[in-house]
Design goal:
Number of domains: 2
Radius of gyration: 19 Å
CATH topology of the largest domain: D-amino Acid Aminotransferase, Chain A, domain 2
CATH class of the largest domain: Alpha Beta
Mean pLDDT: 96
Helix content: 25-40%
C-alpha cells in the first residue's frame, strides 16, 4: 500500500509520524473520510471544502491547495490500483515541542490513505440495525464546535463504548437540552407521518456530507423534510429511522433501546431514498 505522507508517496511500512506530532499528543488536527466507486470519489469537492473549513476554525493552514489535494487523492487510487476504496485525509498541527501553543509546530503533517473498501454485510440493509440512546452527551457547541471534524474523537468513542456494551450497532447522543443530535459516526433521520425529519445543525451536529445529499434527494422525490429539534420520544415513535454516513450510505434502523420501530423492518421511504441514492450516484462522483 502506498500512503502519501507530507510531500511524497511512501510504502506503508515507511509511513511514520513523529511522537512529538501534536495530532498524536493532543488530537490537534482535522480529517475527512471519503469513499470511491469505480475509481471516482463521492462528493470529493464537498469533502475537501469541509476539510478546509475545519482547518480554518482551528487556525490551521492546509499545506496544499484543494486542487492539489484532489489530484493526490486520485493518484492514491491509481497507485494502489483501487476502484472501490476507503479514503482518509488527515492534517495535524505537525511536530513540535510539548505544549498547547500552535506556533510550536512549524509545518503541518499531511497523510492520505487509500484502502480497499470493505462493504457492510448486506443483512444490515435488509434487516436493519439497532441503536441505543447513550448517556454520553454531545460536546457543547460552545466548547468544541461540531462543525470542526477534528482528530479529538473521545466524545464519540465514549458513546461508542456505551452502545457496544448495550449490544447496539450505533449510539445516539443527546445534547445538553436532551435533544437528539447524531450517532457516533452518523447522522440521524426519522420518518413521521410521511415527513422526513432530522436534527438541525443548531442542535450541535456535524453537517454530514451524505446527510445533505439525502435532503437533496428527498426534495427531488417531493418528500416533505424538516430540520428541527427532536427528542427521544420522537425516536421511539418513529415509523422509520435510518443513519447516514459516507461509508454506509443509508442504513436502516429497526430497533432502539429494545423497542421495535415500525413493523421491525426497513421502511418504505428508507428503501426508496437508498435506491435513488444508488441510482443517481454517478451525478455526485468526482469527474476530473
Amino acid at each position: 500500500m502506498w500512503i502519501y505522507l507530507n510531500d511524497r508517496f511512501v510504502p506503508q511500512e515507511e509511513a511514520v509520524v513523529s511522537v512529538f506530532d501534536h495530532g498524536f499528543l493532543y488530537g490537534d488536527g482535522v480529517y475527512e473520510t471519503m469513499r470511491s466507486y469505480q475509481g471516482r470519489t463521492l462528493q470529493l469537492s464537498e469533502h475537501l471544502a469541509r476539510l478546509e473549513r475545519s482547518a480554518s476554525r482551528i487556525h490551521l493552514d492546509l499545506p496544499l491547495s484543494l486542487v492539489r489535494l484532489a489530484e493526490l487523492i486520485r493518484e492514491s487510487l491509481v497507485r494502489n490500483r483501487l476502484q472501490d476504496a476507503y479514503l482518509r485525509v488527515t492534517v495535524s498541527r505537525g511536530a513540535g515541542e510539548i505544549g498547547l501553543e500552535p506556533s510550536l509546530c512549524k509545518t503541518p503533517t499531511l497523510v492520505i490513505i487509500a484502502k480497499p473498501f470493505q462493504p457492510s454485510p448486506e443483512s444490515l440493509y435488509t434487516e436493519g440495525v439497532t441503536v441505543s440512546v447513550v448517556r454520553t452527551r454531545r460536546n457543547l457547541p460552545e466548547a468544541v464546535p461540531p462543525q470542526i471534524k477534528s482528530l479529538n474523537f473521545l466524545n464519540n468513542i465514549l458513546a461508542k463504548i456505551e452502545a457496544t456494551a448495550a449490544g447496539a450497532h450505533e449510539g445516539i447522543m443527546l445534547n445538553q437540552r436532551e435533544e437528539l443530535t447524531e450517532g457516533t459516526t452518523s447522522n440521524l433521520f426519522l420518518v413521521q407521518a410521511g415527513r422526513l425529519r432530522t436534527p438541525s445543525l443548531d442542535c450541535g451536529i456535524l453537517d454530514g456530507i451524505t446527510r445533505g445529499l439525502v435532503l437533496r434527494l428527498a426534495e427531488e422525490l417531493t418528500i416533505p423534510t424538516e430540520e428541527t429539534r427532536l427528542g427521544v420520544k420522537d425516536l421511539y415513535r418513529a415509523e422509520e429511522c435510518f443513519l447516514t454516513n459516507t461509508r454506509q450510505e443509508l442504513l436502516p434502523v429497526t430497533g432502539v433501546d429494545g423497542h421495535r420501530l415500525g413493523d421491525g423492518r426497513p421502511g418504505t421511504l428508507t428503501r426508496r431514498l437508498h435506491a435513488l441514492f444508488r441510482a443517481r450516484l454517478d451525478r455526485f462522483l468526482d469527474s476530473a
